[in-house]
Amino acid sequence: MFDPENPPELATTGWINADKPLTLKALRGKVVVVTAFQMLCPGCLEHGLPQVKRLAQKFNPEDIVVLGLHSVFEHHAVMTPAALQVFMAEFKWPFPVGIDAPGDDDIPKTMAAYQMQGTPTLLLFDRAGRLRRHYFGRPDDLQLAAEITALAIEDANSPREQAAGIEHKLSRALRTPEHQHHDHGDNHVHGPGCNHEHGHFHGNGHSHAHRHD
Amino acid sequence: MFDPENPPELATTGWINADKPLTLKALRGKVVVVTAFQMLCPGCLEHGLPQVKRLAQKFNPEDIVVLGLHSVFEHHAVMTPAALQVFMAEFKWPFPVGIDAPGDDDIPKTMAAYQMQGTPTLLLFDRAGRLRRHYFGRPDDLQLAAEITALAIEDANSPREQAAGIEHKLSRALRTPEHQHHDHGDNHVHGPGCNHEHGHFHGNGHSHAHRHD
Amino acid sequence: MFDPENPPELATTGWINADKPLTLKALRGKVVVVTAFQMLCPGCLEHGLPQVKRLAQKFNPEDIVVLGLHSVFEHHAVMTPAALQVFMAEFKWPFPVGIDAPGDDDIPKTMAAYQMQGTPTLLLFDRAGRLRRHYFGRPDDLQLAAEITALAIEDANSPREQAAGIEHKLSRALRTPEHQHHDHGDNHVHGPGCNHEHGHFHGNGHSHAHRHD
Amino acid sequence: MFDPENPPELATTGWINADKPLTLKALRGKVVVVTAFQMLCPGCLEHGLPQVKRLAQKFNPEDIVVLGLHSVFEHHAVMTPAALQVFMAEFKWPFPVGIDAPGDDDIPKTMAAYQMQGTPTLLLFDRAGRLRRHYFGRPDDLQLAAEITALAIEDANSPREQAAGIEHKLSRALRTPEHQHHDHGDNHVHGPGCNHEHGHFHGNGHSHAHRHD
Q1: What pLDDT shows up at residue D209?
Q2: Which of B154, C182, D115, D127 is 20 to 30 Å from D99 by CA-CA measure?
Q3: Distance from C-alpha of C48 to C-alpha of C135, rounded to nearest angstrom
Q4: Cα–Cα distance measured from residue A15 to residue A85, given in angstroms and rounded to the nearest whole number
Q5: Each residue of B187-211: pLDDT tens digit?
Q6: What does the alpha-carbon distance between residue B141 and residue B147 come to, in Å, rounded to a whole number?
Q7: Is residue D57 over pLDDT 70?
């Protein structure tokens, strides 16, 4: 069962724009922003990738790590690692991208493990490696900048209570139209994106309503 | 001499979109964002006002107060309070606006007291009423959202050391192209804006390089 | 009664960015684009004026004359000629602007004569001085460029039949969603704009459905 | 030698969004707009394809035919017909696209025949099948709308003199910064685009400076 306090490792078969494979474990101590995308998903090209590019250009990569994850759940024959390589080079995306490992039923492993609904999906991890936000669709820049900053201010070894205190201050500071945010990682901002059929996620006896505080 | 630890009160002669006059003193305990603008300044119409509108729509006004300040330093006969009233109503700006009190040499009092170089100018105050940022020109959305969030996380009664600690974390989290930020309120992001002749500011024996920590 | 074949002269009390008063009569032989605006109308600032600026920068002013007309129907005490002068200088609008002459019931004379519904309104005149298009709201750039070009290709002394032939070719070339265009000047593209109460226009016994061919 | 009066036929190996292969010959009588692109060329995604989509949505496809041509000159292993099929379906481009036939030295046949410098390239053909414009890079919307409209007004069987007359009127109507247009198809609007090494074009003893009137 999915536990945002102890989320699964990224399962990847290769990396572009990185010297060596990146893992959540090795990135402990930093805030990590992951965008799961497909190179031919219009919502990723129009919104998701330009947005994380802006984040990567604004935040210091020594402290806030922005990553892409190529989570292909359709058209596998076309969105290959070789095609991704060309895509990354031509568009000059300025962040490392991992290739989500092939899984069952067309859904790659990390995508399945995190129960993503489609692309683009954005995940925010705190310095302790906990999953703190999970957006499907189009969160806005101000929201993400606020949330990343709040995570940046938490200490790496902070107890869960410190995080809860900062989350409380953040939720007080932001308006909350349409349940824009919760205390953990299951916010789904609906908007144009590529959905997959995800029946296979929801027959498995667990709920999205996990909480961790 | 200007002291960002204890900045001057807003000097105003009237308010629009407010039940009663607003003061920094009465807003202690909240984070305060002030945009000083002129209703016929192109940089204010194109950048400054739409940006603080986005901020006002994203942040909770109970906790993060966004204000406008109409600081007219040119064309006084045209940018009158009556004209401002029409401007506010027609454009439906969703935040209170104070009218900067007339001063000497065409420069209104608050503008002079804060040594603003022109419009739009953006000021950020912390919960303790200290001036923490001063931008002239066009800071970007991500930068402001990060800085406002950091201020939102500080306690109202925090000692200066807590603020310094959070500032340290914020400066570690952000890239710093071109001295994008300092610890206090004298960042000037140059870009299209309306400058005034400010010789009268710089012959008065003090420096912009005041620091407070 | 309004006759687009022989439309009324612009009634103005002054000009900015012009050496001398401009008249439709003196501009015969050229295509004339007129945008009627108010300096504090949001739709004019956001759409109408930037659009005619693009037109003025694309088309040759020796052949295609772009004009503004300050048609104030509300807040007269604030949108004065002196205020307009500041507005023109600060925003550097690169075209001449006439001041629509005060009329009855707050509606200026040219605005009334052309039965405009509000601002921004865009009028296109052919080389023979006939009114060929009348838009209220937000026509798009491609539409206007196509229509201006068609008018540019008509001869100055062309009989009405040549114009009809070119109109026929233009209407064949363009899609026509929602009656986007007719053969003359009464297209109203609705969208955000400043409307005036125009009951006083429609009790006077004539119809908008005048035709001229 | 390239003759814009009698330009080469499109050489294609397949079509998407079309019932049957399209040819310039069969389209005689209509104005034809061709954008040559590569599905992973950033300038095509950002500028070229959205622009021709706007054109396709504005002009009547019975009279003004907008086509894409997938002219792959690099990364052939990745930008395959199968990948193009996915790209067209995912992005819902609303116009037919032909696949430029493989040629020598990586340059596909139509691209070579028209001496294109890279992608995006935009070609405008008149009703008589003559090439009238050739842009490499980023022409603007107003320019293209004006030129397409001028071609739409020419008769299908017009003698070259009629076309010259309309071109004259068009060139009088438009400003001409940086030789924005000539009388025929060799305008190169430089800007971000994907260039190929085109040395192999320029050793073949002919000039770009062909003229036809």
Answers
A1: 27
A2: D127
A3: 11
A4: 10
A5: 444 445 788 754 333 333 222 323 3
A6: 10
A7: yes
Whether C94 has its CB under 8 Å from any CB of chain D: the answer is no
pLDDT at A151: 97
Q: Is the confidence at residue A176, as pLDDT, over 90?
A: no
Sign of the Cα pseudo-torsion (B82, B84, B85, B89, in order): positive
Chains B and D touch, contact meaning at least 3 pairs of CB atoms under 8 angstroms apart: no
Q: Is A45 on the interface with D (CB under 8 A)?
A: yes
Percent of chain D at pLDDT > 70 equals 85
D152 touches chain C (CB under 8 A): yes
Q: Looking at beta carbons, which residues of chain A come within 8 Å of D75?
A: 86, 90
Residue D150, token pair as written in the block: 């001028």
Q: Is the pLDDT confidence value at C190 over 60? A: no
Q: Is the dihedral of CA D109, D112, D113, D118 positive or negative?
A: positive
**Chain B residues inside the 8 Å CB shell of C77:** 82
State the complex-level ipTM. Answer: 0.87
B86–C78: do the CB atoms touch at under 8 Å?
A: yes
CB B141 within 8 A of CB B133: no
Rounded to an integer, what distance in angstroms lies between the CA atom of residue A24 and that of residue A37? 18
Residue of B nearest to C41 (CA): B90
Whose CA is closest to D194, among D144, D124, D115, D137? Answer: D137
CB A170 within 8 A of CB A153: no
CA distance A174 to chain B (A): 4
**Is residue C167 left, alpha or beta, with left meaning phi > 0 and alpha meaning psi from -120 to 50?**
alpha
Position B179 confidence tier, pLDDT thresholds 50, 70, 90: very low
Pair B95, B125: CB distance under 8 Å: no
CB–CB of D77/A85 below 8 Å? Answer: no
pLDDT of D176 reads 79
Chains A and D touch (3+ CB pairs under 8 A): yes
Q: Which amino acid is at A144?
A: L
Q: Which of A128, A136, A133 is nearest to A183 (CA)?
A: A133
- CA D20-D24-D25 angle, 5° bins: 95
